[in-house]
């Protein structure tokens, strides 16, 4: 199957509060499962850092809709590559609050311990998401 991994970061707008995040997660989990997309989202009151994995066309369509979503601005692609194996195959959409990330993991990737996803390289973003997803209880 022709699958890709896409990692992006964006800034949140005022239209995106915790209720909007809950709505995004509910819709994403349902729609992603139907599209065979998996991934994880790290949320902070200012940023989204998200990895999407799945069929190229479906991931591309989803990313295009994210770029047009008024809850996001400054959408920046960190990684886009073909994959043979998924990193988040059991997650329709894993979710981690940046404030709940282990301080050691945060310091390892940010240097200062403050969540700053625009400063991450593609590999750092991917490795960071893998580590924080490992802290989650189970598939969501």
Structural descriptors:
about 140 residues; alpha+beta; 5 strands; Alpha-Beta Plaits
Order of helices and strands: EHEEHEEHH
**Whole-number mean pLDDT:** 87
Unreliable spans? none
Strand content: 25-35%
Assign the CATH class. Answer: Alpha Beta
Number of helical segments with 4 or more residues: 4
Q: According to CATH, what is the topology?
A: Alpha-Beta Plaits
What's the β-strand tally?
5
Q: How would you describe what is shown here?
A:
It contains 4 helices and 5 strands; from the N terminus they run βαββαββαα. A 5-stranded mixed β-sheet has the order 4-1-3-2-5, sandwiched between helices. By secondary structure, it is α+β, with helices and mostly antiparallel strands. The chain has a single domain, classed as Alpha-Beta Plaits (2-Layer Sandwich), CATH 3.30.70.
Topology (SSEs and partners):
Layout: E1 3-12, H1 18-35, E2 38-43, E3 47-55, H2 56-68, E4 72-83, E5 94-97, H3 103-110, H4 122-133
Parallel strand pairs: 2-5
Antiparallel strand pairs: 1-3, 1-4, 2-3
């Amino acid at each position: 199957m022709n699958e890709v991994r896409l990692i992006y970061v964006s800034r949140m707008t005022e239209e995106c509060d915790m209720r909007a995040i809950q709505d995004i997660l509910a819709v994403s989990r349902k729609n992603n499962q139907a599209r065979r997309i998996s991934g994880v989202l790290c949320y902070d009151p200012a940023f989204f850092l998200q990895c999407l994995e799945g069929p190229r066309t479906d991931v591309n369509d989803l990313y295009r809709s994210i770029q047009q979503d008024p809850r996001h601005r400054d959408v920046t692609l960190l990684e886009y590559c073909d994959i043979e194996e998924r990193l988040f195959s059991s997650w329709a959409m894993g979710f981690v609050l940046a404030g709940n990330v282990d301080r050691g993991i945060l310091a390892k990737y940010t240097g200062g311990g403050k969540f700053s996803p625009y400063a991450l390289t593609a590999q750092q973003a991917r490795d960071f998401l893998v580590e924080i997803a490992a802290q989650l209880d189970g598939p969501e």
